[in-house]
Amino acid sequence: MARSHFLQRAIAPVLRRAAREFPAVILTGPRQTGKTTLLRELFGSTHRYASLDDPATRRFAAEEPSLFLERFAPPVIVDEVQHVPSLLTTIKLAIDAKRSFPGQFLITGSQQLSLMAGVSESLAGRAAILSLLSLSLGERFRSPSSSPFTSGAGSSRGVKAHSRESLAKLWIRGSWPELVSQPERDAGLWYSSYLQTYLERDVRSLRNVGDLREFQSFLLACAARCAQILSLSDLSRDLGVAVNTVKAWISVLEASQQAILLRPYFRNVGKRLVKSPKLYFLETGFLCHLLSLRDADHAMSGPAGGALLETAVLCEILRGFMNRGEVPRVYYWRTAQGDEVDFLIEWEGRLRAIEVKLTSDPKPEHAAGIARLRELLPEVASGEVVCLTRERLPLSRGVDAVPFMDFALHRTY
């Protein structure tokens, strides 16, 4: 088997700072984003390690939590704590006994719903909570197995002019650390295994789904609706299941951090919670696998091309926030008259508008939605149309067309 190379992660300085300031650090994220590898690389020389993926260790932690913390005394890395959420109460008692010592517990979890419920009950105010997604493009360019966009390994300064095909290949393969560090790996086999593991472990444990084939059909239906406004009733009708079942399954996608619901922007925060969200997957590779997109030309020329580009843009935005330890404040904007902008970002007291267009020939009319938004919301500082152009171009006052790679590698939020 090929040996994986450790990939430097942008969140590392934030993790180190959190471990100096909080008794516990919680690192969440989907399976296979490198949470365990990162913590062991950064803290393996100073912390013990206990994996609750191991059945015997899991049983020990569940039945004898106090003895477990004697056997794995802090400082310790506790991996996949969602398997024994009751352990968080015992960790709280241990922290309170030695509150002055930071970095005692470094905890990972792949199921945000059960984990965060335990954190809010037991570790509120005692833990820093961070999230790790798959690799950003900036992180990928620091990898020795550099992408086809670089002429020199490890530096974004070597980025070449990119083509639709090369971008599509990048998105189809995805940004999971294992696939990036081992370019010889068969991505199709990897995703098939990932999907099966996800269904058998996360889905069953989160909602005790009886028929995994139904849930897999649900996954495929969600993939076909990626970057669209979510209609629970439409999904319910197409799948032949109850609306409440669809709601529960959506919560599984969110809790396992495979997908995100993007809320519409309103000045009235309450309205954001009641209006229909848009659904996005958090990894282009997994999305392409579900949609059976294997060919670059098919991916970009077919009906999913626009959604794929939108997903890639949103993933880079979210990774940028999360890698700085910040909660993303990203929305979409749409009026009853049909004016819309794909992404509206709240950052440092300002609003920035991002429109995504699957075109290499951007025109001023592509910025029309942003122009309308800025008329209605003067607090929108600027806007960008992210597309496949080869260079940054002005489209209208305060709005530029920006190449996807420039946006991903040089964004400031």
Just give the CATH class of the largest domain: Mainly Alpha
Kindly identify the CATH topology of the largest domain. Arc Repressor Mutant, subunit A
Annotated CATH architecture of the largest domain: Orthogonal Bundle
Number-wise, the strands total: 14
Residue share in helices?
40-55%
Return the structural class. Answer: alpha/beta
Overall pLDDT score:
88
In the sheet with the most strands, the strands line up as 9-10-11-12-14-13
CATH homology superfamily name of the largest domain: Winged helix-like DNA-binding domain superfamily/Winged helix DNA-binding domain
Q: Count every helix, treating DSSP H or I runs of 4 or more residues as helices.
A: 19
Unreliable parts: 143-161
Largest sheet: 6 strands, mixed
The separation of the N and C termini measures 38 Å
How many distinct folded domains?
A: 3
Q: Note the beta-strand portion.
A: 15-25%
- Give the C-alpha Rg: 22 Å
Shape: globular
Short description:
The protein is of the alpha/beta class and 413 residues long. It has 19 helices and 14 strands.
Account of the 3D structure:
The protein is an alpha/beta fold and 413 residues long. It has 3 domains: 12-131, 3-Layer(aba) Sandwich (Rossmann fold); 137-297, Winged helix-like DNA-binding domain superfamily/Winged helix DNA-binding domain (Arc Repressor Mutant, subunit A), CATH 1.10.10.10; 330-410, no CATH class. Helices cover 45% and strands 17% of the residues. The protein has helices spanning 12-21, 35-43, 55-63, 65-71, 87-97, 112-122, 137-140, 164-173, 177-181, 187-207, 212-224, 232-239, 243-255, 269-274, 284-290, 296-301, 305-322, 368-376, 404-410; strands at residues 24-28, 48-51, 76-79, 105-109, 127-131, 228-229, 259-262, 278-281, 330-334, 340-347, 350-356, 380-387, 393-396, 399-403. The strands form 3 sheets. It has a 6-stranded mixed β-sheet with strand order 9-10-11-12-14-13, sandwiched between helices. A 5-stranded parallel β-sheet has the order 2-3-4-1-5, sandwiched between helices. It has a 3-stranded antiparallel β-sheet with strand order 6-8-7, with helices on both faces. Helix 10 (187-207) packs across helix 13 (243-255). Mean pLDDT is 88; it is low at 143-161.
